[in-house]
Specification:
Keywords: Signal. The protein is mostly beta strands and 210 residues long. It is built from two helices and eleven strands, in the order αββββββαβββββ. Helices cover 11% and strands 48% of the residues. A hairpin with a 3-residue loop joins strand 8 and strand 9. The radius of gyration is 18 Å and the shape is globular.
Length: 210
């Protein structure tokens, strides 16, 4: 199904306005977080508000592929689960990542359910994968000793957000983008094995039980 571009644009505009109203109730970033300010000082990484549901759009590419997918993510660290519902190339799929079951190499137990084309029955696969959807716990920036990367502008977000850089699983450089309400608005990472780059942007985020 294809939606008119003006409807998609209106939806994203509404999402941006809603987020702007929510973040306006939170304290603004202090001048000590502004690059080249005389007051600047390396801030301490914040605790995130980790239980959330969000719409997302993601672009992943490496030396073999390039694809863009959109859908819905539930981040539930209390249950050690991430669920991603997404649509790509005529398929609708649901991936459930069980972070309570991770190999020593960092591969995550994944159950993938896919509907293709006009199929009436799903294809179900289960195995261990290197997930594009990390589990973000409340203290991930603190325990990873995140380095502040500056205040930046992100798609679908009104105003500036803070960028924080970590080494996920001690091996993959990840940048996490966080609003002044300590709510994630997206992330990016680079994996050197296959020269993989992933950009993920959130919108219509609901904080609370996922």
């Amino acid at each position: 199904m294809h939606f008119p571009l003006y409807l998609v644009g209106a939806s994203l505009a509404a999402a941006t306005a809603t987020l702007a109203n929510k973040t306006s109730a939170c304290p603004p970033f202090p001048s000590s977080m502004v690059a080249f300010s005389a007051d600047f000082k390396q801030p301490l990484p914040p605790l995130l508000r980790p239980e959330f549901k969000t719409s997302f759009v993601q672009h992943k590419w490496d030396q073999y592929l390039s694809h863009i997918t959109a859908g819905y993510i539930s981040n539930a660290p209390a249950e050690r689960l991430v669920r991603a519902d997404q649509a790509i190339d005529g398929e609708i799929s649901t991936s459930t990542f069980n972070y309570a079951n991770v190999t020593k190499e960092g591969f995550v137990d994944n159950t993938l359910t896919t509907y293709s084309g006009n199929s009436t029955k799903p294809d179900v696969w289960r195995g261990y994968v290197n997930s594009n959807f990390p589990l973000f716990a409340a203290d991930i920036l603190v325990t990873s000793e995140a380095v502040f990367g500056g205040l930046v502008q992100r798609p679908f977000v009104h105003g500036l957000v803070a960028s924080w850089q970590i080494m996920y699983q001690g091996a993959i450089p990840v940048t996490v983008y966080v609003s002044n309400c300590n709510v994630m608005v997206g992330y990016e990472y680079f994996s050197p094995d296959l020269r993989t780059r992933v950009i993920t942007n959130y919108f219509n985020t609901e904080v609370g039980g996922a």
